[in-house]
Amino acid sequence: MKPVVIEKWSQTKGNAKVEAFLSRPAFAPEAEAAAAEVLADIRRRGNAAVLAAAKKFDGAALTAAQMRVSPAEWKAAAQAVPVRIKKAVKTAHDRVLTYAKAGLREPWFMRTPRGGYTGEYYSPMDRVGVYIPGGTAPLASTSVMTVTLAKAAGVKEIVACTPCRKDKAVNPVLLYALKLAGATEIYKVGGIQSIGLMAFGTQTVKAVQKIAGPGNAFVTAAKRQVYGYVAIDQVAGPSEIAVLADKTANPDWVAADLLSQAEHGSGHEKSLLVTDSLAVAKAVAESIVRQMQTLSRRAMVERVIDRGGILLAVTPNLKQGMALINAFAPEHFEIMTADARKWINDVRAAGAVFVGEWTPESAGDFVAGPSHVLPTGGAARMFSGLTADDFRRRHSFVEFSKEDLKETCSAIETFAEVEGLDAHGRAASIRFQ
Prior knowledge:
By secondary structure, this protein is α/β, with parallel strands linked by helices. It has helices at 16-22, 29-45, 47-58, 64-67, 71-80, 83-103, 140-153, 172-181, 191-200, 217-226, 251-262, 278-292, 298-306, 318-328, 361-366, 402-418, 422-429, and strands spanning 5-8, 108-111, 117-124, 127-131, 157-161, 185-187, 210-212, 231-232, 240-245, 270-275, 310-314, 332-336, 352-355, 392-399. The N and C termini lie far apart (83 Å).
């Protein structure tokens, strides 16, 4: 295994290795090509194409009838999950549901100058789809972090897709979490084929209006390519974390948090420490090596390190450190400094911010409340994390009074004249003839 890299960086001098670390390709060419081929086949052949892809990529020889999780499978999953795990899932669900409902935007209106009204109101989507990864780890927590939000938004039909094992079974904890969160249909389909199933529909499955949830490079490529047929939440890829730490930070805690994202399994995860203390950086590097010896996913972490996916950057001061964090635009950002809260307003690009030494990123992954479906690969510069409002439609409304229209009629006619749209102007003026 290669050593954990420590590099110095400043806004004036920069550092080529740090700049290379910040660069993450938005799309993988091989994934784009594979997605285009599979999606085109699903549009042509429906179920047959989905089943062929499931057999090829997941090793699951399903029939069309077997794709959907049956009531008997729901029941068996619930019976198989230990009580302590059910309690943990319910704790997470309750906290996420409370947060999701609190964040829903309220309808609003304002009076127009002449007695009318304008405003906005919201309605839930009718049918949405969520993708739950199940490859290197069955992400039961993602069931809570996606389906719960759609349920809070008032969506009636919530479709979930997740890959099954070769024996056609799905992890029972994942199924239990999906049922508790409010999924109405579950399909044992993963990867590109699941995105095509939800986006285009098949002979037995209705298409959805929006697809949300994280996935690997192939799922991400598929989501991007079905945009327009359906809405999508964001473009997301391998997990990543950045930590801003000063000399007061506990090196073992920082190391544990960096490792928490490196263990996800793709090998392309990124973990970045930014500190103004070389001593802290060295202590964190030593702790990473020491702690990873006890991890069940040690081999996966080693692969991340060998690819340069863990970097410890030392900056002249925390202000420049924050500039580096914003340039990285991490999915998860932890502030572990003596005055952690004061740095919140300096954050310009991060999916989720974790403030203070008692807020490990894993709390956000599982129980804190906000969804852990977050932008990665630098997409936090233009995307935000998933919320319940992402499963609702926003409608503006206008109710003019006669006096409002009379006051603006000449402006309407003028715009119509400028743009050569006679009927537009007449639609206003005819009401006063």
